[in-house]
Design goal:
Elements (H helix, E strand, L loop, with lengths): L6 H9 L8 E4 L9 H13 L3 E5 L1 E4 L2 E5 L3 E2 L5 H11 L8 E8 L2 E8 L15 E4 L2 E4 L2 H8 L1 H4 L4 E8 L2 E8 L5 E7 L13 H5 L1 E4 L4 E8 H5 L8 E10 L4 E10 L12 H9 L4 H17 L2 E2 L2 E2 L3 H12 L14 H8 L3 H12 L15 H11 L3
Parallel strand pairs: 1-2
Antiparallel strand pairs: 2-7, 3-4, 5-7, 6-7, 8-9, 10-11, 11-14, 12-13, 12-15, 15-16, 17-18
Helix pairs in contact: 11-12
Length: 393
């Protein structure tokens, strides 16, 4: 059925005597009022839990047939924003892609059409904490098996985009991954208005969205160490909600998920080791000989990877350093820290992970071009060590 968008469309419904159905419900204007919030939510949620449909406010009906347009709703107290707020705050979970159409009758009076799609994220609970369905052209309470049937729709429309925490030693990361078998299109991320990203500017994918996100693709953002984010003097929020929306090819429309992230859940935890590692450790001395042989083979394989047609393929810096070693020099070629991860910096400088990450941040994310002396907690000795290493600061 065509969605009414003009007053002439409403008049045609009356003229043609289009009856109410499982997908259409007429309501007189007083039904859209602040005293009828529970009824509004019950009717909207019943359509979402069933097969979708339209609520039209401003048409008087008798025996399920439209009789006439009434005086309309006074928009000085009831408007689109109010209707949207009622639906979004009193029905859980949030119903995606609801369309609220205001059709003007006069400057201060309007008719309203609420177009509710069939939901794949239900069942949806009304303001009175009950679940409703469409039955005999009205909203009726759902049986338990019906609630379970609606809940199983999620299996038909599986979630594609996963947003979660990933731990790498003491480093906290956030990952976005498509774990489904379909392409997620036009992926968008919405954070709370007062939320500040951990490094000032949002990453491009989170700020501008992802146009094309195929199955198996994974994007990871390094945030900081557990000390910098969860420490007592941390300036960061340890928890937040993010709303993720994207076009789902199986439903043919936008899908929305709300994900809650709380880094406090990971306090005093460790990264779980692979079961294969546990099995390997339990073998102990019985596998020591095999491990040694594997190590030797791995060393040989490593040399194979740097052998080219004309000899050994080494970088110019490595060749120069080999020359220093051959001559007995104590000086080595400088390295550029912006090309190395924080764990390499930690090992080369002999520092803890927290300071390594701060230095990593300085060389990778330094839009204000601050000097190395401005790194929090850095010592003169470490500054000199970095200068000797890089020979360019």
């Amino acid at each position: 059925m065509k969605i009414p968008r003009e007053i002439e469309n409403l008049k045609d419904l009356v003229k043609l005597e289009i009856p109410e159905s499982l997908h259409l419900d007429y309501k007189a204007s007083p039904a859209l009022s602040k005293a009828k919030i529970h009824e509004i939510c019950k009717d909207v949620s019943s359509f979402a839990n069933s097969d979708g449909g339209m609520l039209i406010y401003g048409i008087v009906e008798e025996e399920s047939l439209p009789v006439k347009l009434d005086e309309g709703i006074n928009t000085e107290s009831i408007n689109r924003e109010w209707v949207d707020q009622v639906i979004s705050t009193h029905i859980t979970p949030y119903i995606e892609d609801i369309e609220i159409i205001e059709i003007k009758k006069s400057p201060n009076y309007s008719f309203f059409v609420i177009n509710v799609p069939k939901s794949f994220r239900g069942p949806h609970q009304s303001a009175d904490k009950k679940y409703y369905k469409r039955f005999n052209f009205r909203s009726a309470p759902m049986e338990h098996y019906e609630i379970e049937d609606v809940r199983n729709r999620k299996k038909i429309l599986p979630q594609l985009v996963d947003f979660d925490v990933e731990l790498d030693g003491q480093l906290i990361k956030l990952k976005i991954e498509n774990n489904g078998n379909e392409i997620a299109h036009d992926v968008e991320f919405k954070f709370p208005e007062n939320f500040k990203w951990y490094r000032g500017e949002y990453p491009h994918a989170l700020k501008n969205g992802i146009k094309f996100f195929p199955p198996g693709r994974k994007i990871v953002f390094s945030l900081g160490t557990t000390f910098s984010i969860l420490g007592k003097e941390s300036k960061f929020e340890p928890f937040f909600d993010v709303t993720i929306s994207y076009f789902h090819p199986l439903s043919g429309r936008k899908t929305q998920e709300i994900v809650h992230i709380n880094f406090n859940d990971y306090l005093d935890s460790t990264v779980t080791r692979s079961p294969l590692v546990e099995i390997s450790n339990s073998l102990g001395s019985l596998s020591s000989l095999e491990n040694e042989l594997k190590a030797m083979n791995k060393s040989i394989e490593t040399f194979k990877s740097i052998i080219g047609a004309t000899g050994i393929d080494l970088s110019l810096r490595t060749l120069k350093n080999l020359r220093h070693i051959y001559k007995g020099d104590s000086e080595f070629e400088p390295i550029d820290l912006k090309y190395y991860e924080y764990d390499v910096i930690m090992e080369v400088l002999g520092i803890d992970s927290d300071m390594a990450f701060k230095i990593y941040d300085h060389f990778h994310y330094n839009p204000k071009n601050k000097s190395i002396e401005e790194i929090e907690g850095i010592t003169e000795e470490l500054i000199q060590k970095i200068k000797d290493l890089t020979n360019r600061i």
